[in-house]
Amino acid sequence: MPNVIKSPRSLDIDITSRCNLRCKYCYHFSGPGDVDTDLPKEEWLRFFVECGHYGIMGLSLAGGEPFFRKDLPELLEGIIANRMRFSLLSNGTLIDDAWAKYIKETRRCNYIQVSLDGSRAEVHDQLRGKGQFDKAVAGLQHLQRHGVPVTVRVTLNKLNYHDLENIARFLLEELGLPAFSTNAASYMGLCKLNDQEIGLDVAERSALMAVFADLVKRYPGRFSANAGPQADLRMWSEMERARLGGLAPAHPTGALTACGCVFDRMAVRADGIMTPCTMLSHMEMGRINHDDLREVWQNHPLMQSMRARNEISLKLFDFCSSCNYINYCTGNCPGVAYELTGEVDHPSPDACFKRFLGAGGVLPEIN
Amino acid sequence: MTSDTNNKPMANPLIVLREEFDDWAILFDPDTGDASAINPVSVFIYKHLDGKHTVPDIVAKLRKECEDVPENAEAEVQEFIQQLLDKGYAGYEKQF
Fold first, then answer.
1. Whole-prediction pTM
2. In Å, how far is A151's CA from the nearest CA of chain B?
3. Is there a contact between B19 and A6 if contact means CB atoms under 8 Å apart?
């Protein structure tokens, strides 16, 4: 197992479980991390002192909607006072000019990620509610005007996949963003309840990959993805190239080597419970201000078991038997694997290339 | 700002010394987001930038704690501290 750093470099914190929206695919609102009440500001401020003491460099605040907390400025000041930087994941609808100005003046913001799921209101609002597109774009433009680093995340799903080219043009040309990232509605949280309506099928995923293959030529270097069709396209193309060329895999593969986040970061739920990842909110490892952060990071059995996953060979799974890609596969996201199979130590069926091809999926022609 | 063998440099308290593993560390400037990896000897030096030690003091401690410290160690320590001074990661206490 690789060396484990003494403390995480960053933390993903759900600073609130409350939100002004109920987006159809939100990964919250039907899991153990969803609590009725938020921790009081004093608890978070106390925890930030500990984070600073252990040299954590950045906190990513999500939720819920971080801007829903009236005391957000005081929380950010606590982060700043303890020599850290922050980023915020937001739906953008509550960000006004004053917020953007304030964020800029902190000088500690890595970026604000605004979720935008369409190139126009008709697409975005059917996922997030009437009027939300205009508010999100306004929030984004306030941030741009004040020079706050801003990025956009597009969550692809059945209701917006046809709009991807327009989204790219809107974000990159009209709004002038340097880049944006994509993922896909994953089978967790509210998405589980709305899967029939919004989950991508194999044909839609294939279509999206074809569009991405074209867009990356038109807008080189201006897309990123850790999940969803764009990430699948990159990963599966690499796997296919390596297999056909008899090449060594580019990354550690053949075992549950994904994901590497647990060597770098961990998460805290809105109720202060520490977990390995926001996608694994059922894996409770202790509570902030009660359990020592560094001790949990270094020695908690669940953290250690997550790190030991990369020693579990894919050959041990019936699921992977007779797969031509087994030596090139990482098993992908344990959070999605858990939601789909009930097991964390299992390859994710959602990211299985063999299953995708078996269901009629088509990978765009690769070089 | 330049270093001097009689001065006693101090680490900038706003800079984070983040210890990672095998005694390596990162110097992190939260205002810029810049992070630089430093080796165990540099970590040792950085920890002695407390306004109480001159460069010769630090080198003497280094020779006591470590084996095979090269002849030109003082010049190298001086150079490292100068780099820190140039980046604003260290400074000298001002007497008024």
1. 0.92
2. 17
3. yes
